[in-house]
């Protein structure tokens, strides 16, 4: 199990556990007690950790795509390129970027002023919902949210698509059908997880933009905060 793929997979599992631990216990407590109250400090803390782990999820999936690209397109140099130092550095950079982005959004949310007794139309403190409820000007916050969303989703997604375009091109060059199947099977689990992650995230925000209903947005958000992290272990366990 001491290979780059399982090192990245262990980090992905940790992040998935943290994502659900950040939102689900509070949601279950609200259902149990029939009380949906959260303090201002608690809301900012939950928002910080959710952004941190969401960004981490995104970057670790991208790193795993690069790992599959090297394994299939440069198999003879795989252990030289994907050495423990590089693997550790890639994960460390992912954590640093996630921490910086979540800190930026949290500090920008702290500069906003809010009226008392606000009701967030969501089951957790989602950044966009919190910013929209501010009594002060939130134009700068919205600009930063949209800019970072394009940068942090578009960049990693472009890297994943580029990696898989090279992987498909390399697989097509393999003469035997068995060789093609063997090469594709090594990245099938990762491709499933990536499709599930980006599919649910895009589905949530496209549906919420179309319907403008906070209830439907909250319901759809359960997909990427609860369902996706729950399915990831099943996908990789079946492969193993």
Automatic annotation (TrEMBL):
<keyword id="KW-0812">Transmembrane</keyword>
<keyword id="KW-0552">Olfaction</keyword>
<keyword id="KW-1003">Cell membrane</keyword>
<feature type="transmembrane region" description="Helical">
    <location>
        <begin position="218"/>
        <end position="238"/>
    </location>
</feature>
<dbReference type="GO" id="GO:0005886">
    <property type="term" value="C:plasma membrane"/>
</dbReference>
<keyword id="KW-0297">G-protein coupled receptor</keyword>
<keyword id="KW-0675">Receptor</keyword>
<keyword id="KW-0472">Membrane</keyword>
<keyword id="KW-1133">Transmembrane helix</keyword>
<dbReference type="InterPro" id="IPR000725">
    <property type="entry name" value="Olfact_rcpt"/>
</dbReference>
<dbReference type="InterPro" id="IPR000276">
    <property type="entry name" value="GPCR_Rhodpsn"/>
</dbReference>
<dbReference type="Pfam" id="PF13853">
    <property type="entry name" value="7tm_4"/>
</dbReference>
<dbReference type="InterPro" id="IPR017452">
    <property type="entry name" value="GPCR_Rhodpsn_7TM"/>
</dbReference>
<feature type="domain" description="G-protein coupled receptors family 1 profile">
    <location>
        <begin position="1"/>
        <end position="236"/>
    </location>
</feature>
<protein>
    <recommendedName>
        <fullName>Olfactory receptor</fullName>
    </recommendedName>
</protein>
<dbReference type="GO" id="GO:0004984">
    <property type="term" value="F:olfactory receptor activity"/>
</dbReference>
<comment type="similarity">
    <text>Belongs to the G-protein coupled receptor 1 family.</text>
</comment>
<comment type="function">
    <text>Putative odorant or sperm cell receptor.</text>
</comment>
<dbReference type="GO" id="GO:0004930">
    <property type="term" value="F:G protein-coupled receptor activity"/>
</dbReference>
<feature type="transmembrane region" description="Helical">
    <location>
        <begin position="47"/>
        <end position="66"/>
    </location>
</feature>
<feature type="transmembrane region" description="Helical">
    <location>
        <begin position="183"/>
        <end position="206"/>
    </location>
</feature>
<keyword id="KW-0716">Sensory transduction</keyword>
<keyword id="KW-0807">Transducer</keyword>
<feature type="transmembrane region" description="Helical">
    <location>
        <begin position="86"/>
        <end position="108"/>
    </location>
</feature>
<feature type="transmembrane region" description="Helical">
    <location>
        <begin position="143"/>
        <end position="162"/>
    </location>
</feature>
């Amino acid at each position: 199990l001491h290979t780059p793929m399982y090192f990245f997979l262990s980090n992905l599992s940790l992040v998935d556990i943290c994502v659900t631990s950040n939102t689900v216990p509070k949601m279950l407590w609200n259902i149990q007690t029939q009380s949906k109250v959260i303090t201002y400090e608690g809301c900012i803390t939950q928002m910080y950790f959710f952004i941190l782990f969401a960004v981490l999820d995104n970057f670790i999936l991208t790193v795993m795509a690069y790992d599959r690209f090297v394994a299939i397109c440069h198999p003879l140099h795989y252990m030289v390129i994907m050495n423990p130092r590089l693997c550790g550095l890639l994960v460390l950079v992912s954590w640093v970027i996630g921490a910086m982005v979540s800190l930026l959004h949290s500090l920008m949310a702290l500069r906003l002023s809010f009226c008392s007794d606000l009701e967030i139309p969501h089951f957790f403190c989602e950044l966009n919902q919190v910013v929209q409820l501010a009594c002060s000007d939130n134009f700068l916050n919205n600009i930063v949210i949209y800019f970072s969303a394009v940068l942090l989703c578009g960049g990693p997604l472009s890297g994943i698509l580029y990696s898989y375009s090279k992987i498909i091109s390399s697989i097509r060059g393999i003469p035997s059908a068995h060789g093609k199947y063997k090469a594709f099977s090594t990245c099938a689990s990762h491709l499933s997880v990536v499709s599930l992650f980006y599919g649910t995230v895009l589905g949530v925000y496209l549906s919420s933009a179309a319907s403008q209903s906070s209830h439907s947005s909250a319901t759809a958000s359960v997909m990427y905060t609860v369902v996706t992290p729950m399915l990831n272990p099943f996908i990789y366990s079946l492969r193993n």
